[in-house]
Amino acid sequence: MRVNRSKRLLRRARQLMPGGVSSPVRAFNSVGGTPRFIARASGSSIEDVDGNRYVDYVASWGAIIAGHAHPVIVEAVRRAAANGISFGAPTEAEIELAERIVACVPSIEMLRLVTSGTEAAMSALRLARAATGRDRILKFEGCYHGHADAVLAAAGSGVATLGIPGSAGVPAAAVADTLVVAFNDLAAVEAAFTARPDEIAAVVVEPIPANMGLAWPDVDFLSRLRELCDAFGSLLVFDEVISGFRVGLGGAQERFGVTPDLTCLGKVIGGGLPVGAYGGSARLMQRIAPVGDVYQAGTLAGNPLAVAAGLAALELITPPGVFDAFEASSLRIAKELEAAAREAGLPFQTRAAGALFGLAFSETPVRSFADAAAADHDRYGRFFHAMLDQGIYLAPSGYEAGFLTLAHGDGEIDQLLQAARRAFKKVA
Fold first, then answer.
1. Would you give the DSSP letter of residue 401?
2. How many CA atoms lie within 13 A of 372 on its CB side?
3. Is 144 an active-site residue?
4. Which of 386, 345, 336 is nearest to 363 (CA)?
């Protein structure tokens, strides 16, 4: 497999951009080697600048649920672009997208469109603080809510610690009101509330974390978070930027039967273009300017191209049976990957839900970030390259999930599984 042009482009890019990339994980630092510079994509496949083709299980980190360059979405964007790329003014299509989201997501009666998941989470937490009159936020180690200062906090020792900055440049004061506990650790959550009964504005959580392989909430974890928030007057915020419209039309909240106060969305609702949204009850959302006193704005929010792509994408995944098919495919991947790893004598864990699947070279299931960190990431790096050499593009990090699209059929999944059997033997 030739990567000569990708290597040349990487050298050129490193002179202009940190690491030669626009987002850190793209640099392949976790797995080593040369990141592939992509030239084009179609359906389930991407092609790099050296002409190598790969079956893509990254799918723009979940944003591409219909498949690359889906003709319906491309045509929707083309039509929208012909009428103007950006107005900085309201459009009818924004209303249509909002109506579709409200019809699907149980917690949302009213929403605000933004341009990224980071913006959605940042804005939802600002609203939660305003609505409760409190400052503290409780989050979970390993759950990613974008790169806003307040949620770039890492866990410390003890049951629940005040946040410490998870990045240079984040002032200690910015995360001083952020509490961090382990995912699935209800005792730590209860202890945090008991210690600060009138201080926590919100608990923010990825109901199905997808940045630690693909963790799964314990049976009563999310429902108990709901109970604790109600008991202590805090808001429950679900970050469904990844799980929203990927584990079902109603997201993880519909799947688990737990309704948060606020929900953050992104990825799928833009059909591959930059978009995000946050929403909740009309009572809460009417605190947002210009109706209320919580300021949030965005020049490109509700961009007509992103809205058109999002409407087209949601239309494509709405027909009955779509998510049943996704679930069957992801469960097949998980089951057969585990069987192949066992046959190769490897410790291996998988999870699957809707159009998501996760994998870890681990003896035990991943229930928390500590479990994900304890997995064999060196082996994952070797596995990643063994798959890449066979034309399978997985996430270049053992902490990330895999994504299916409408374009991934039995043939593509067969390719993934056949390649994995060979790769497992190579890294055993």
1. -
2. 25
3. yes
4. 345
Cβ atoms within 10 A of the Cβ of 150, count? 23
Using pLDDT thresholds of 50, 70 and 90, give the confidence band for residue 170: confident
pLDDT greater than 50 at residue 403: yes
Q: What is the pLDDT of residue 155?
A: 31
Provide the 10 A C-beta neighbour count for residue 377.
Answer: 17
Please confirm, yes or no, whether 425 is among the known catalytic residues: no
**DSSP track, 6-18:** HHHHHHHHHTTSG
The residue from 48, 50, 57, 144 that is catalytic is 144
Instruction: Return all residues near 395 (Cβ < 8 A) that are at least 6 apart.
Output: 25, 57, 58, 61, 401, 402
Question: Is the four-CA dihedral 22, 178, 239, 300 of positive or negative sign?
Answer: negative
Active site residue 267: yes
Active-site residue, from 267, 278, 371, 380: 267
Does 331 have pLDDT greater than 50?
yes
What's the rounded mean pLDDT across residues 90-94? 97
From the list 50, 239, 261, 376, the catalytic residue is: 239
Task: Note the pTM of the prediction, 2 decimals.
Answer: 0.95
Give the tens place of pLDDT for each residue, 30-84: 999 999 999 999 999 999 999 999 999 999 999 999 999 999 999 999 999 999 9
Share of the chain above pLDDT 70, in %: 97
Give the N- to C-terminal CA distance of the chain in Å, as an integer.
23
CA pair distance 409, 23, nearest whole angstrom: 29
Catalogue all structural domains in the chain, each as residue range(s) with its CATH number: 4-69+320-427 (3.90.1150.10), 71-317 (3.40.640.10)
**Going by C-beta distance under 8 Å and a sequence separation of 6 or more, which residues neighbour residue 287?**
127, 130, 131, 293, 294
